Fold:
Amino acid sequence: MRPTIAVTRWIPDEALEVLAQAGEVKLSDADRPLMPEELRDHVAGASAVVSMLHDRVDGSLAEAGGPGLKVVANVAVGYDNVDVAVLAARGVTVTNTPGVLTDATADLAFGLLLAVTRRLGEGERLIRARTPWSFHLGFLLGSGLQGKTLGIVGPGQIGRAVARRAAAFGLRTVYSGRSAKPGLEGEFLPFEELLRQSDFVSLHCPLTPETRHLIDARALQTMKPGAYLVNTTRGLVVDESALADALEAGEIAGAALDVFEAEPEIEPRLLGREDVVLTPHLGSATVETRTAMAVLAARNVTSVLTGGQPLTEVRP
Ligand code: DGY
Structure:
């Protein structure tokens, strides 16, 4: 009997074709995240699960999969939705999709930085609202990038890709993270010092118990009054309510967020603010990147199901 591969949401045909080489694909046709009970039903008896970042993959899901479950391939580089230790203890391999989304996510982080500092959303809303306007020297002035300091929190692949873009814009780059990485161009600083020195702070650390609400009221107060915050990693790295307080109090100048604490919900006070740019988790959203992510996940599945090694395994 061919193994069953449960896919929890739409993936591109290229990835389905890879999966079909190794088993029978059972694809959810719901155009939404499955509820926990639906998810458990969907994976019952599966040898492999292709999961999305909105799926909670924990012991109860592994239990629902049953003893034949061999691999969970999460279609994301982040895997905070997966209880890797519990799955490993059950002998289930977990994989993610590093590398293939680095440039797309760095592009979006940079796009958000430009959007919030140059007030692009505000200008667009003004035009669409048919608000009368005319060019004048003081109109919708933003903040330039050249010669300023960009603080990158999390000098992993995406953080470093943002730094490469920053160099082209004449920014000085500083980093903070668990440890300095060899080959980093720019100064490695303690987190608080990075907040003190940076005109722009871009978050690229994974969500872990240590980084949950890393940007809290205190961190926001430590940032420069004219600073901007960009978040393209995970929403829970930022305390959204504290961010709204800080913006209301003028403690920082603006924020651009692609990810949210309880997606798709957003702290209501952020929605009406002109100094906030909001996008719906688009970091990796290009045709090329999302296809590459799904194909990498599918190749991880086929490799494990045919007795080979996973390509990009996550270990506890
Ligand atoms: C990831 O891969 O972790 C992103 O958040 C989704 O592209």
User: Anything to note?
Assistant: Residues 4-98+287-314 form a domain with the Rossmann fold fold (CATH 3.40.50.720). Residues 77 and 98 are 5 Å apart (CA to CA). The first strand starts at residue 4 and ends at 7. The chain has a mean pLDDT of 97.
